[in-house]
Design brief:
Two copies of one chain form a homodimer. The first copy, chain A, is an alpha/beta fold. The first copy, chain A, has two domains: about 80 residues, 60s Ribosomal Protein L30, Chain: A (2-Layer Sandwich); about 150 residues, Alpha/beta knot. In chain A, about 35% of the residues lie in helices and about 20% in strands. The first copy, chain A, contains nine helices and ten strands. In chain A, helix 6 links the parallel strand 5 and strand 6. The model of chain A has no long low-confidence stretch (mean pLDDT about 95).
Chain lengths: ~250, ~250
């Protein structure tokens, strides 16, 4: 398939939120993410590659030169593959989702992507994110998910709406705070939705009073804090360990 | 104290490894890191600030304008404070160090800094790093440690030297691999040195055959992998939980 100048301009423009919102499209780069997008239920808008072998495999791919790829890419070192995906806003069905986590105001794209990747690893494929979170289709978020974006359901909604709905469905809301119960003593079930708070401000004032379980990761004197992704990994691992052990 | 043009040039040059090695100095930015450096045993070369209140507190501070700070800073949004610290290569005394971890070829500065910060949180203040790790005084590493750099002892040495020395001192070497024992079943003691492997290549071929305990963090089907900092956080937390519980 042929490449037009307007295609380059369009793909390039998806680095900006404004144009992502206008078009409803976003990009993912690299062989792994391109393959994940193609094999996912997400609708693919277009695929670009500099690699003939890949083009033979996916004939709908548009062949580009390295220079054209550089013009379209958001990466410092562009890869050979780029896919444009249509963003379909997702909804969680609380009644059928096996496990749910909550992302509350995660503003760093790298953390947002890493937390999605970690949740996916521990089998949590349904997540609510508050409107204060960085946009899910920001290119840095997409790259940091390492493909988990295409395997998970992330619904953006106000906490005032989804937390009462979760509680009505029997969920307990658990999150990390200062001076909570030690995570080493916590008892988690599959009906715990774990809240991951923001790097800078922790759990938001909207969510804080709604917590059923206030958890602290014990540290030693002198140290400052844990990175948001690391804290999330520890809570999600502990949740996984306990719910796995009990075969719930 | 007065600022000279050569000072600006010197501080700016510390963004480059070559000039850090030549001068033996590195920079840390922001009020928190500046305060941590000043109250640490590390020798401070010079302190710069745009803030009169801070200068009154630390009279040795050199006052700079925002424009001068911008010229010296390595950050996109420079803070009001910057400190130049002399790098004193550190040595670990295996006989007296209470807990030790090993960083094996961590190449991403953000991960390197985050892992130091996490180890510090869990009370591991002594770490070996292999020569393949990103340089400890890289500004991005320093910023990501959030000050833990100034509270920990990190010795850069070849694994062929320090691992036999650790084993001779009674340490077991534990690290994350594919198809190891589940971390949920591991028994850790203070005489376990945990190896954190690289983001891209895991534990190096030099260290791999020296592992006494091969550990896996169980994940669910389909997910790709865990981020290096997240995996490190989980192993260090589990080590902390078990050794804390036994009051070793």
């Amino acid at each position: 398939m042929q490449l037009f100048k307007k295609d380059i301009k369009f793909v390039r423009s998806l680095g900006q939120k404004k144009f992502r919102l206008e078009s409803g499209c976003f990009i993912a780069e690299g062989l792994k993410l391109t393959r994940e997008a193609l094999s996912s239920p997400w609708p693919v808008h277009s695929v670009y590659s500099t690699d003939d072998a890949f083009i033979a495999e996916y004939p709908q791919t548009i062949k580009v030169t390295s220079h054209e790829m550089e013009m379209m890419s958001q990466l410092h070192s562009p890869s050979a593959h780029l896919v444009v995906v249509k963003h379909v806003p997702q909804r969680i069905d609380i009644a059928t989702a096996p496990r749910i986590a909550i992302l509350d105001g995660i503003s760093d794209p790298g953390n947002m992507g890493t937390i999605l990747r970690t949740a996916d690893w521990f089998g949590i494929r349904h997540m609510y994110c508050t409107p204060q979170c960085v946009e899910l289709t920001n290119p840095k978020v997409v790259q940091a998910t390492m493909g988990s974006l295409f395997r998970t359901v992330v619904e953006s909604a106000p906490a005032e709406q989804f937390i009462p709905a979760l509680k009505a469905a029997g969920y307990r809301i658990a999150g990390a705070v200062l001076n909570g119960q030690s995570v080493y003593d916590c008892v988690f079930t599959n009906r715990h939705a774990i809240v991951i708070g923001s790097e800078s401000h922790g759990i938001s004032p909207t969510v804080l009073p709604l917590l059923d379980d206030r958890i602290t990761i014990p540290g030693e004197m002198g140290a400052e804090s844990l990175n948001a992704s690391v804290a999330a990994g520890i809570l999600l691992m502990e949740h996984h360990r306990q719910t796995l052990a009990r075969h719930e």
